[in-house]
Fold these 4 entries.
Entry 1:
Amino acid sequence: MSGVSLNGTRLVQILVGLRAPDKPLPQLNLPEGRASAGRFSERLGQLIDFSDSIAISEAHGTGPARAFQAGTASTEDITGEFQRVRDSIARSVTRSCTPGGGPSRVKLPLRSDLDFKEPAAAAGPYLKFYSAQQREIAHRVHNLTARIRQDVAGLSPAMARLVAVDTALGNTLAAHTRQYLAEIPALLARHFEQVRRDNPGLPEAVLEQFCAQLRELLLAELETRLLPALGLIEAINENSDRKSYE
């Protein structure tokens, strides 16, 4: 569900490896799985205001009754759609971050695009590329998550209630997640400057390594953005497994 902590994801692990020793990572402050139940509630409560609490309460069923509408998609259909779109986005990211990787809507900067006369601006093309990739990933994941929620809600009344809670909680945490992810280009700028200082002239092999880091970072960000949809996929498959043994 949408409340899955980002603190242990591959994205955070990569960012920790890239950050300068004197520059701490931005804090998302989401609930951590290892925290006690009381600490979990305390930290989650700090992110949820009164209006959010009302929305989540209604989603739990304490508000107006919601009529269930059965859908036509099966658990297999929903899982297959998730895997198909996830793999498609991952392929697009890999292709975009690989020089000569093939047609791509968002183009990886060439060496000739870099301004070596202005060191402070040298990272600019890469930061624009990364931000454009972020927007593309965010758009596609948003659409996928919306479809997954709609289809899961049509499986059963119980799943519809789960989707209602997931949506309410996801809306509450979305701004905090966006704020966290928006910090990444600034971190990349500092990392690129360190790479440039350590490698005068930026040899081609160094730039290729930096592009590989961009790719891994974007793929890790994709995993993070997919967490809400993945939570629902796991929920419906666990529910399906339980039914198979009844």
Entry 2:
Amino acid sequence: MKTLPLLLTTLAFALHSPFCLAEKGADLKPLSAKPGKVLFEDNFEGGALGKQWAVNKGEWAIKDGAVAGSSKKEENHAGVFFLNLPNHNAIIRFSFQIVDGKGFGLSYNSAAGHLFRVLVTPEGFTVDKDRDKKDEKSKNEALAEAKGKIEPGQWHTMMVEVQGGKVTVQTDTGLKADISNSALDVDKTGFRFVTATSVLLDDVKVWAVE
């Protein structure tokens, strides 16, 4: 399989805004894409996970109205919580809490495998394009970095917009990043939340893009 051509890549940086407070379920508004109909919504009020969720690795279960996720040491793999919602362009907003001070990722796959991911830590987030495992010369590529405090043990909100090769990410704490990369303009299999340690998730909502 040939590596898709990278026609345009924009490296973006952002700083933390001291005037934005962390908030669960913050009503973030899209910055670059126009939201269409709601494709999916879950606030985990029920006792069991919905049918569109799949636990691929680790332990993921509803606890006190949120999903608690963690990896299993014996699996020797990060915990993976998959939302089966195929899409090409979409907007996702969700609340999260870094439990152990390390972080998690929101990962996108194509039919060919890993595509790109947003990696979140207490120091901010990055947007990284994944290497093509079928191409020995392919490497992970840093596309964007937004530095700023994301306090562990507190709830925060993130929105990720994908439209063609354009990806825009923002948090309720004022971090923002915006990139364009033609290799990302492909069908995606859904949304994968990934953690090597543990994380809490809530208020997941996905829109189509008009």
Entry 3:
Amino acid sequence: MENQKLVRALTVLLATTYAYQLKIHKYHWNVTGPDFVQYHKFLGKMYEEIHDATDLIAESIRTLNALVPGSFDEFSQYSKIECDNEPNSSFDTMIYNLVDDNKVVIDLIKTTYVEAERFTAYDISDLMTSRLAAHEKNKWMMNAIIGKI
């Protein structure tokens, strides 16, 4: 398959993005404290936007005539981030985890962009540009929350 490196990059990005979205969703469900409403809404908006992106990434794989993985087992094989199995993380821990994971996703988006450009799949490189913008915005917001800007 001529486009195998691009399919692989998209597959890793999809699995990692899905794992990231699932972690955000868990945090959305379990956040507590005096700023609960604010953080619950913030995390809700993040996971909804990222959830929608997983479909676009999966469809990009299909446009390359490849099959899309869709099970937890397959995603765990490809994902570059770990799940959070802690039963009760503080919001600070949640945000720091998400900042770290967001960096991983950003790096994968950049790698996928390079592969898409190399393969002249400009529709996919365009998607990567929009995904990068979304993740950079989330990075800015999370860094503002933890006071890193």
Entry 4:
Amino acid sequence: MPLPPEVKACVFDAYGTLFDIAAPVRRCADALGDRAGPLAALWRAKQLEYCWLRSLMGRHADFWTLTQDALDYALEAHGLLADGALRTRLLAAYRTLDAYPEVPGLLDRLAAAGLRRAILSNGTPEMLEAAIAAAGLAGRFDAVLSVEAVGIYKPAPAVYRLACDRLGLAPAEIAFFSSNGWDAAGAAGFGFHVVWVNRAGLPAERMPDGPAAVVPNLAGVAP
């Protein structure tokens, strides 16, 4: 999938787009058994729900706090909250996520084509730094941007504006990649050229704005 000629930078969501958020539960499958899938789904759902609720309530807390709160909810729902060792393992794994296999090659192709590369994420700067290092992607980004700079979560327009301000580009000059349909809708409404990385094969969101393109992963993206 080629990018439009006006695009000068590629900006990526982190969790689920570059980094595999299913990895922590996979690494702890020995302790979770058949509860692994349901726990992973509930953990992610509550993590996002807490982001949106706190944004609406004006009660911001950083993404690491919400990740822990969401995990505690999911563990309690599955009768596992008392297992402190499991909780510690899951959180440690979340800080050292695997990158999807096609990510390093794509970033190298974009760099060779002269396109700038950035991350724009709900994650804290410390979380993103740890994930980038663990995935072997250090040095491959021109900017790593966190919502902590504005104190509100995506899809608030102020978050997307961070990329324009940092890169000195208009929204139409930025290709934004996200595996989250709601994020793709928010970014499209802001004016980015949006590519929805629909890894899960989900239906399109019923929102006023949508992506310019949909791909199953990042392997086919070309500068």
